[in-house]
Amino acid sequence: MRIHKSATVGLLLILAVAAGLRFYDLDRASMGSDVMEFYKIAQAGIPPGELLRNGANYIPGVSPVWFAAHNAFLQFFRLKATFGEVRLLDALAGWLTVLAIFGLGSRLGGRAFGLLAAFCLALHPIPIQMSRECYFYAPVMLGCVLMLWGLLILVDRLQNNQSPGLPFYALIYSGFILTTYLTSASWVFTLIVGIGLYALLLPKTLRRVLPWRVVGILTGGFLLVSLPLLISEWGLKTALYQFAGEGAAHWGEVFGEKKLGVTVSDFLQVLQGFMLGRGPLRSLLNILLLAAAVYRVVSLWRKHTKWRVLMYCFAATFVLLFFVHARSVHLVASRHFAPLIPFFVLLVCLGLEWVAEVLQQRVAFLRGRSVPTRALAFLVLILAFGMPAVWAVQVDAGYPWKQVSNWADRHLPPNTVVLCDRWFTPWNELSINPSTNAVYTFTIPNEPPNVYMESRWRETAIAFLRNHPFAAFFDQKQYWGRIGPWEEPHKLFSHKEEFVDVANNRLEHIGLAYRVPSSDTPEAWRSMTLYYNRPEDVLERSRREGARVVVGFGPEWAYLKPWRPPPGWSEQLMQTLWIQAGAFSARGKGFSTLAEINQFPQAELMNYLNAGRWDDYRVAGEHTALRIYNLTGVDLPVELRLSGISLNGPIQMKIGATGLAFPATLLTTRTVPLKLHPGENTVPFSVAPGRFFLVKQVVCQAVP
Predict the structure, then answer these.
(1) 3 state DSSP class of 265
(2) pLDDT of res. 179
(3) How does DSSP classify residue 664?
(4) Please, are residues 440 and 471 in contact by the beta-carbon 8 Å criterion?
(5) Is the bond preceding residue 448 a cis peptide, omega within 30 degrees?
(6) CB-CB contact of 267 with 325 (8 Å)
(7) What global pTM score does this model have?
(8) Which residues contact 56 (CB under 8 A, 6 or more apart)?
(9) pLDDT on residue 366
(10) H or E element: which one contains 52?
(11) Where are the alpha helices (H) located in 275-304, listed in sequence order?
(12) Which of 136, 146, 66, 133 lies closest to 99 in space, CA to CA?
């Protein structure tokens, strides 16, 4: 009874540590990559039933089950869709895995071994990071532990010639759902454990030790539970698409050629992370613990069926996962091998336990002192995982988007346009992690790499930055690993700010990071940079280049890139806007009338439309102003040429003291004479209330 109480107290303490590392400051990290889709769907408040029926409409190619579970959880408890609250269910799954592995470890080697396994998983940085991410690998790992626990219950029951009870079915079916419905990455594990179940059951059934109904119940349950996977668009069909045919070809373009040697190297690094990590001392401990664990397994092989079954499952899953990944175009990532984590945790603990027993036998001071000897195993885990576990709580998921926006809020002027080097970034990661001052944008789509190169994207970026001299540039170093570094921003900007996910880099350095940068990206490139100029820097550069006038937009000007129709804008209006913008860029002038558009050949109009949809505009308000800088030391007569379009009817406006009229939905150019004093000149630019006017281009030239 005293031992049972000690185990209970120990388990409660371990669960408290696990909860702190998984639930503390959950809203800290940025939302990036695919996890932001979870956040968007949670924000939208889509009913779980709708997600299950029409998941492909919201996030194609991914199972909607965990999305639906997230929304059901949030809506049932009436939680807000904040960064922290949308991650609560994932953190809960990670915390429950610690409890589940205690049950698995206790079934395997007694309560002391179960406590050691729970403590190892509670402190392990990779499961901590996995549990703090709004994604589906934390519940997948929980499902793997539940299935293994159920498998070991079956071993015990069969050794006593007993039919498996209700706990067995509850663990197997719940684990089966979590390892099949959330992602195809765990299907290999599920297949191997399923084969193991039948390998144990069928001999007993054929010898009539067990009734056939046990196999029938298990098989019928599997078929019933897996039926939606076979018929749904997000089940087997999606998995086949991802690993064969068009899907494989698409991801092959994204990731590039995959070499077997790189796959083997990445695979071994991932497996090191599942133990104690990499580095001289950690690698040495990995080898020692793995050797001790193998020695112990060999000694237990004949006597303990549970270890034998467990190692068969481990070896088969290990080999098959490697084979599948070697054949796949997808990159090696630790999250894809989540089913292996429970096996490695158990092996680490088995090695530690054996070392503790050897010390207990060989060291006179420890002989007969089981508690201090057990404490040695816990001490090793604390030394190996203690500080990395703290770092894991501080991880920005590899991409510190929040840092970028928080810095922009403090240092950039309001409505500063920031060009991003990755076209997904401004309307995904940085829209989910927004700034109040920065307006993130892009030039044209530049993914995958062949599009980046064929479109000569870097030239479009330079043209944008030349046309928007007061803009900033955000460089994620997209494709630097394949195409090479891009040093041009150094020539255009006088200042830069580096953003580094320090905690993730520390963990990556010792092999314990959950998400790591691409293997072809050197560590020196694993930061994100925001390049920017102060106004005086722009003016000084313009003077050096021989410019006499520079035009700027004040903070009251909005920025718009209508590549997708904003709410309430008709498709016809958008096509008219895109066609005229594309024609203006190609010809340097607009159409004389809207009727002229219809007289152009259809193919030419489509070229204009495809080019013009990526153009950007400034939006004038009722009280806006142009900031025009005269870089000479004398008064300068200039001609201001304004090209713009009114989208909701004819418009009357004023630039300075000059009144101008623009027709409806026709991109038109007007000219205004001005006289500029040396330095900054504020030229009022007023539009009638309720009117929506887009400025395509402003050119200010000195009059000869």
Answers:
(1) helix
(2) 94
(3) B
(4) no
(5) yes
(6) yes
(7) 0.86
(8) 64, 233, 234
(9) 65
(10) helix 48-53
(11) 280-300
(12) 146
Contact in structure between 693 and 560 (CB atoms under 8 Å): no
Rg (CA), the chain: 31
The pLDDT of residue 303 is 81
For position 237, what pLDDT does the model report? 65
Question: Which secondary-structure segment (H or E) carries 652?
Answer: strand 651-655
From the CB of residue 388, how many other CB atoms can be counted at a distance below 10 Å?
A: 23
Q: Per the structure block, which two tokens stand in for 468?
A: 């928007």
Q: What is the pLDDT of residue 1?
A: 36
Residue positions counted in the chain: 704
Q: How far apart, in Å, do the first and last CA atoms of the chain sit?
A: 100
Detail the DSSP E strand segments found in 97-164: none
- Tell me, what's the pLDDT at 269? 78
Range 260-275 burial, b when 16+ CB lie within 10 A, else e: eeebeebbebbbbbbb
- Alpha-helical regions (H) of 328-369: 341-362
Give residue 261's pLDDT.
60
In angstroms, the CA 58 to CA 122 distance is: 34
Residues of the chain with pLDDT under 50: 1-2
pLDDT of residue 2: 46
Reduced to 3 states (helix: H, G, I; strand: E, B; else coil), residue 679 is: strand
Contact 123, 17 (CB under 8 A): yes
Q: Which residue has the tokens 């953190």?
A: 91
Q: Which residues contact 31 (CB under 8 A, 6 or more apart)?
A: 39, 83, 134, 397, 401, 429, 432, 433
List CB contacts of 453: < 8 A, sequence separation 6 or more.
Answer: 483
- CA 653/CA 78 separation, integer angstroms: 49
> Angle 187-206/212-231 helices, nearest 10 degrees?
160
Q: Measured between alpha carbons, how far is 141 from 136 in angstroms, rounded to an integer?
A: 9
Secondary structure class of 367 (helix, strand, coil) = coil
Task: Kindly report the three-state secondary structure assignment for every residue of 7-50.
Answer: HHHHHHHHHHHHHHHHHCCCCCCCCCCCHHHHHHHHHHCCCHHH
Question: Which residues are CB-contacts of 358 (< 8 A; sequence separation ≥ 6)?
Answer: none
What would you measure as the largest C-alpha separation in the chain, in angstroms? 106
